Amino acid sequence: MASAVPVINDITYENLLEDPYPSFRRIQDTAPAVFVKAANLTLVTRFEDIARIERDPVGYSADNPTSLVNQIMGPTFMRKDGAEHAVGRKAIEPSFRASTIKEHWAPHFSGICKNLIDSFIEAGQADLFPALAAPMASLSLMQMIGFEDVSWETLALWSQSLIDGAGNYSRDSEIERKAMAAGKGVDEAIEAVLDYHRSHANPSILSSMVHADPPMPIEEIRANIKVIIGGGLNEPRDAILTLTLGLLMEPMQKATVLANPELWPTALEEAVRWISPIGMYPRRVTRPTELSGVALSEGTQIGLCVGAANRDERRFVDPDRFDIFRPKQSHLAFGAGPHFCAGAWISRQLVGKLVVPAVFERLRNLRLSDHAPPTIRGWVFRGPISLPVLWDV
Ligand code: HEM
User: Most buried among 144, 318, 328, 380, by the most CB within 10 A?
Assistant: First the structure.
């Protein structure tokens, strides 16, 4: 007979934010699904269980009518299943095609990266979060969306406010106010450029949406752009910093990659396995079921902790170590199943082929600062929040 979901009461939210990996391991060793009081969610942390769940989108739905994402951002295809999901996904697909990435986005992203590095290279030191990764991710997402006249700081603020709003289960009124203000700003920014995109087809996401067959309705455009702003900025930013950090911590691996540039894609995959920028995303159990011997009742909200699964000792040897030489094995950092990240290929290009190689090529003798260690934080979204470095001028 299936057992009940165990409960863990003594993991704090701060434990998860500061360093979730010891808690993840404890949950993994406890049961396939565990209710963690601080998260107010049943967490699934083992690799094979998450992979199984993502192969069964009927039993485990991405659709959650009560979720704050729907309330704060509106009706998005990312929280739909089946045909409704497929229509939205197809509408944005032209912006993410391999040929579009290569011919259109890559040259634009290289230009942004060059200008940013030019702006601080003479200083010989920087915190790569504000100096490079945050503006890089924001400016490239801005171009992809097709916005004009929005500063990178504004887009980054909208992104953070929308994420905070979507996770605001304590109903903090200030967080709600900021999320609503960000939503209004996004709606206005869309309004300002929509006619242009209607009359000038181009590779941007807004253009793909208005030229889709049938065109995406305006309230869905607004909702999906908000989710893309909330979900498409942190991750490349964090992946840029994580890959840079991993290589700076492992000089031998760094030397090998720099001598063998064909290893950059491997290094990027290892970085997002090691510290997954999205550590957890939600699903809903649609019918009474059993997950590896644990009974899950209909309607249970579960959190798929891909950040934990990517360090599951049942799958990866010495999983806490950044190691580009580990045997090749798939990970879950970009999700799996029908909701597999739409931005995976563009992020692989941006982070692993353009930005981080440029960082190591242009900043000579790049090294971690002696005085200020990097800070890494988060569990739903995780990455370095500071990365102070030095280089020779
Ligand atoms: C290193 C960078 C990135 C990582 C690690 C990442 C990770 C993920 C993950 C784990 C999911 C699944 C979420 C779920 O099923 O609830 C996802 C979905 C998605 N991502 Fe990414 N992402 C990255 C970059 C991006 C970028 C740059 C964009 C857009 C410009 C983007 C757009 C999307 C979209 C649209 C979805 C929803 C797909 C769907 O529901 O069909 N991602 N991403």
Answer: 144
